[in-house]
Amino acid sequence: MIAELINPYYLQVASFMLINIILGISVYITLSTGQLSLANAGFMGIGAYTSALLTIHFELPIVVGIIAGALVAAICGILIGIPTLRLQGVYLAIVTLGFGEVIRVVFVNWETLTNGSVGISGIPHIGREILSTLQGFGFNPSMLGLQNNQFIFLSIFTLLLLVTIFIIWFFRRQHSSRVGRAFAAIKLDEKAAESMGINITYYKVLAFAQGALVAGFAGAMYAHILAYISPADFAYHRAVEILIFVVFGGSEVIWGPVFGAFFLTLMPEVLRFISEYRYMIYGLIIIIMMAVRPQGLIDVNMLNWFKRKRVKGGHKHGAGNQKGM
Amino acid sequence: MKGMFKKLVGVTAFSSLLFLSACGGNSEQAGGDSEGASDGKVKADVGVVSFITGSGAAYGEAIKGGLELAKEEINEKGDVELNLIFEDSAGKQDQALTAAQKLINSDNVTAIIGPTLSTEMNVVGPEADLSGVPIIGTSTTAEGIPQIGDYVFRNSIPEALAIPASMEKAIEKYDAKKVALIYGNDDVFTKSGFDTMKATAEKMGLEILTTETFQKGQSDYNAQLTKIKSYKPDLILASALYNEGAVIMDQARKMGIDVPFVGGNGFNSPEVIKIAGDSSDGLIVATPWYGEKEDPKVQGFVKKFKEKYGNDPDQFAAQAYDALYILADAIKNAGEADRDKVRDALAETKDFEGILGNFSFDEEGDVIMDPTVLVIEDGEFVVFE
Q1: Per the CATH hierarchy, to which homologous superfamily does domain B160-287 belong?
Q2: Does A27 map to a domain?
Q3: Rounded distance, CA B345 to CA B188, Å?
Q4: How far is it, in rounded angstroms, from Cα A163 to Cα A161?
Q5: CA-wise closest residue to B245 among B274, B223, B208, B210
Q6: Is residue B211 less than 8 Å (CB to CB) from chain A?
């Protein structure tokens, strides 16, 4: 029964959805200090290439590769974060966009390492590695009544789901912590925040590094799920796509990018039945969204409205919980 | 804290439910009639992953046209009854992979044709191979595609076959010894074409005077061409797609470079003549497809295609057309729509006479055939001799 429900196709879509959610969150983090970064596609590429090269050339376990990929991306985040601190708004966006392109051009031209624009194939596939590891312990997917490929995609999905839940949980916690309040203060007014004693250099670089870390992680996962990467995957289009998740869903609360990535990844798949018209509808939805709700679909007011409804409905525990989500 | 976590789990569960219900609709239509043979006819579902929307939609449309035409003819003949299921990849690897997953798992197709780009095939190929679904690329020309696995085939002539063929003929005729290379280094297609050109030139003992690069969408090539001109090459090897390639030729001719150009597969398009006009004379390309060939099969195809779609078929349409015939042949020989049996029958394809010419798979599933070498003369592609 369960075995029939598990279709690798759905799991595949769900996995990409989760990766996009993580990418959306990475932009949201930097945005929560008021910095618009378009470098996240570049950080994603750094994570993907680092992990892919480490696991291929040094035969490191995938877990080590992914962690290394995320960390290298975070270090790059700090390096790019410090010099761009003076920039704001559209100027920062331009510089980070340039950085993303530089990363791509490096991947294209550093042929001895990255194989140029042909890309790297034969990257260890995370699901297949999990399966073969478990098989080493005498486990067989047929014990659960699953086929091998069902198990492979189920394991990827589960892993990503756990990580996504952890990331959402972490940043929700952070949002209502000292760090989160500092981020919010900087976003509202940098000068005021500084005069209140907030070290804005530290917090802005921290936000940048966190965003890069998360994007690098998503990139590394992407590399190990597709088993093939090329520089074109991390170009300008990707940066814009990630930004759209956040703009569409709303950048005020973490549920915005989560919903945006969820909806906009699902849309082209659901619309498959109208084949060539699907991207027209996709575009149309975004245009309507921007005209009707420029702040994004989900914002604080909407969440509060939901909460009030729930309180009226008789749930008591939400009553005192009016702090912004 | 606990409450928040609960909510979080709740939202996640809800969203996955929403997702499942949203996608659940199409799972019913799969299976059933796809397998089994009634009254001697073999029925089979064939999935197609193609680049139908986005910048490369012209390729996807041509492929779709070729396949539809072949399907009608095959079904009319009545040995096999094919049902094509088209899925769009938008030219992206992740989209191509989900499309293939849908075809393999939800639609239970017997075989897959596509995807359009080699980059997509690098992602889809291993997955199809692991799932045991035969997959035929009709436009994937990069190195190493059929080597992905036993279930991966292609009928598009690889660069490694096309480029040496055109280079050999050109060098023989013009007695060239010194060549200059120019290629786009940020595109998989042109980069892999360049690698083949360079390897072939070295193997033939040609002197490579200079190697110049350009980027996609560039419009001014004077710097590269001035340098090339100063070396006075006998021949220019250009690995470019037709839109950039045509501009390069135009600017080269204006600068007074009048040596012939040898191009890769991406340079082979009637568009070159449209864009560059007279400057395109002297472009030599090898192609699997030549629409002027005096073969009743070829002329029949060109006529039917033109009647149906109103334009001349290009190589993508022709390759897709032949691919479906090869697949139908294999399904007929296999006797049933079984993935493994179809794969075995495909691997045995030998001396298939299609509109592209005599065609066989080698043991890896790669192409064995002789490409036709063409040259542009007075604004028209003619056979190069």
Answers
A1: Response regulator (3.40.50.2300)
A2: yes
A3: 32
A4: 5
A5: B274
A6: no
Read off the tokens for A192. 């005021």
Q: How far is B223 from chain A (nearest CA, A)?
A: 19
Query: Each residue of B183-199: pLDDT tens digit?
Result: 988 887 888 889 899 99
Question: Per the domain annotation, does A74 fall within a domain?
Answer: yes
> What does the pLDDT read at residue A278?
76
Q: Cβ contacts of residue A288 below 8 Å, gap of 6+?
A: none
Nearest in space to B134 (alpha carbons), one of B294, B347, B282, B333: B347
DSSP string of A7-71? -HHHHHHHHHHHHHHHHHHHHHHHHTTT-----HHHHHHHHHHHHHHHHHHS---HHHHHHHHHH
pLDDT classification of A318: cutoffs 50, 70, 90? very low
Quickly state the pLDDT bin for B24 (edges 50, 70, 90): very low
CB A229 within 8 A of CB A52: yes
Asked if A193 and A202 touch (Cβ cutoff 8 Å), the reply is no
Residue A37 is part of which domain span? 2-235
The helix-helix angle for A200-226 and A40-57 (nearest 10°) equals 50
Q: Say if A250 falls within a structural domain.
A: no
CB contact under 8 A, A317 and B11: no
**pLDDT (0 to 100) of residue A163:** 95
Contacts A310 to B, Cβ<8 Å: none
d(CA B248, CA A256): 47
Which one is the CATH code of B38-157+295-370: 3.40.50.2300, 3.40.50.980, 3.40.50.1010, 1.10.150.120? 3.40.50.2300
Q: Helix crossing, A178-188 with A200-226: angle to 10°? A: 110
- Give contacts of A 166-195 with B, CB under 8 A: 168-169, 172
Contact B272, B246 (CB under 8 A): yes
pLDDT at B39: 55
pLDDT at B57: 82
pLDDT surpasses 70 at B32: no
- For A120, the 3-state DSSP assignment is strand
Contact between B98 and A12 using a beta-carbon 8 Å cutoff? yes
User: Which residue in chain A has the smallest CA separation from B194?
Assistant: A118
Comparing A82-96, A190-204, A247-261, the range with the smallest average pLDDT is A82-96
Complex ipTM value: 0.79
Indicate whether B268 pLDDT > 70.
yes
d(CA A323, CA B4): 13
Are residues B265 and B193 in contact, defined by beta-carbon separation less than 8 angstroms?
yes
Interatomic CA distance for residues B345 and B339, integer angstroms? 10
Beta-carbon pairs below 8 A across chains A and B: 112
Question: Could you give the C-alpha distances from B313 to B151, B266, B290, B291, in angstroms and in order?
Answer: 28, 16, 10, 8
How many domains does the structure of chain A reveal? 1
Whether A279 sits inside 8 A of B54 (CB atoms) is yes
Question: Would you say residue B37 has pLDDT above 50?
Answer: no
A117 and B191: CB-CB below 8 Å?
yes
Give residue B34's pLDDT: 41
**Has residue A325 been placed in a domain?**
no
Tokens 């912590």 belong to residue: A177
* B340/A contact by beta carbon, under 8 A: no
Average pLDDT over residues B271-298: 87
pLDDT tier at B144, thresholds 50, 70, 90: confident
First to last CA, chain B: 80
| Residues of A in Cβ contact (< 8 Å) with B101 | 8-9, 12-13
- CATH 3.40.50.2300 domain range(s) in chain B: 38-157+295-370, 160-287
